[in-house]
Amino acid sequence: MTEPAPSQDGLKRGLKARHMQMIAIGGSIGTGLFVASGGTISEAGPGGALVAYALIGMMVLLLMQSLGEMSARLPVAGSFQTYATVFVNRHFGFAIGWNYWFNWAITVAAELVAAGIVMSYWLPDVPGWIWAAIFLVLLTGLNAMSAKAFGEGEYWLAAIKVITVIVFLVCGFAMIFGIIGGTSPGFGNWTEGDAPFVGGWLSIVSVFMIAGFSFQGTELVGVAAGEAENPQRDVPKAIKTIFWRIMLFYIGAIFVIGMLIPYLDPSLLSSEASDIATSPFTLVFERAGIAFAAALMNAVILSAILSAGNSGLYASARMLYSMAKDGKAPKIFGRLNKRGVPVPAMLLTASVGLFGFLTAIIGQGEAYTWLLNVSGLSGFIAWVGIAVSHYQFRKAYVASGQDLADLPYKAPLFPLGPILAFVILLVVIAGQNYQAVIDGNLLQMASSYVGLPIFLLLWLGHWLATRKQPAEAIDPWTAKLN
């Protein structure tokens, strides 16, 4: 077997085109769709949830076009951390990199907690921390093998999710048209009570956070570009599928759920941390007459959780490795094994997953909710970094005298795309828990917004520590970026 060629930063390009496609697809399908979608419909109504997911979906499309342009031209594992450093400034890049590592490291811990909750469906007497430990070892072992092993694992985990959504959509539309499941409800659920828009614009804004968190992970294709066999070909292909996947999977699923289940149905409210194994997908499958629907969806949700954990371990390890190579993290995390895997960076990230053991101390649902809140805002901050970096990237590219026609992929809506995404992200960040601000609930405010002061402190701290050190002059178009 031919050994994968090394990338510019020492990693090995072992990810094939099909891996890149599934990483892009799988990154946007997870518990946010399978579990949290029911709660969004209950809160904002079927119309409100649809609008919220559509707006956030369009924002994500714009961001991925920005990321696609940069990562196809400069495919490095550091991705937007490197772009932020080179095209904005080193202090911003430092904060973006550590923020992203923190986001995914905490997400790995949160997914381990969720895995323990899901496994209690079948084995309620086994403590959740045991499952957290087992899955942490499995995911760490898979990532330690090679980038190709990660890609292969993610390929099959993502395939399970994609097949499930497709089957769900087929069954759902068959029920809407009255082909299966009895009499068609028509648009009755869209006119019940205050539907289709429950709570007006404030409810839609409140759903933005959930919808945005659901899409987090789509940017993984940019990180994976550093180990893609042919990033100039495969990254644009993956990016170009994002719009249709958002439309088909998310918008289609929200529409089906809203058509078939009234927003007043108390079952939708069970999509909380303590009942994470309950899903609106399960409700639809059960009403379609599919046997073992709950057990089936529980297995699918488990695969989605493991997929998120697998991707989180990969992304955060590569980000930490890139920062170590760039002098933003201890040098030990810049070491690779003979298979091109940054093992020290991966082990530090995996150690953060030990937070999953909080389930044994403070209870599964509480631990999951706390970890989710801490990591949620960090993902949005990383997206802000993508928008700002792309705007500066394009300016630098044009200023260097290069032809835009030579870009492997060109974001079609520049400069409107990154600017509009930036504005929407500011609204999402500011309004993610506006109710806590209105009510003066300091504890909830701290939980929801803690990522913002952490990011600003990282930025300020790096500036104070390095402000007297001259910045290294880098020509991004010819230099080997880390």
UniProtKB/TrEMBL annotation:
Main localization is membrane
Q: Which keywords does this chain's UniProt record carry? A: Amino-acid transport, Membrane, Transmembrane, Transmembrane helix, Transport
- Localisation: Membrane
This protein's membrane topology, according to the annotation, is:
Multi-pass membrane protein
> One Pfam family this chain carries?
AA_permease
Q: Which GO terms describe its molecular function?
A: amino acid transmembrane transporter activity
Identify one Gene Ontology CC term for this UniProt entry.
membrane
Q: Which residues form the Amino acid permease/ SLC12A domain?
A: 19-472
Does the keyword field hold DNA repair? no
TM region positions: 22-41, 47-64, 100-123, 129-146, 158-180, 200-221, 242-264, 290-315, 341-362, 368-391, 412-430, 442-460
The family line of this record is:
Belongs to the amino acid-polyamine-organocation (APC) superfamily. Amino acid transporter (AAT) (TC 2.A.3.1) family.
Q: What is this protein called?
A: Amino acid permease
